[in-house]
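Amino Acid Chain and Its Fold in Token Form
===========================================
Purpose: to set a sequence beside its fold so the mapping can be learned.
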Amino acid sequence: MSSIEFVLMLYLIPLCLVAFLVSAALQYLFPRVKLYLIVLGSYILISLYLWYRSWIVDWALLSFVTGSSMIAIALVMLYMKVYRMAEKKANEMN
């Protein structure tokens, strides 16, 4: 493993963790906001800029961070849907 790969891994792990936690918290606190569209739009705009400047390494970091953010949003949305379904089932049984 070269030194640049090691440095990227050191940047990548905390960035992905922070993006995961912040995205999950925002999606949980504001369920009606379409956060995945905001993240996707931001990713496209920033990607265009990074590709224009030929900053490929930064674009790779951005891709991984955006991916972890989208996974967190999807998991929270799934949790909310399952929770609502269970709540509805419980109300029907009573």
Q: What stands out?
A: The chain is about 90% helix and 0% strand. The first helix runs from residue 3 to 29.
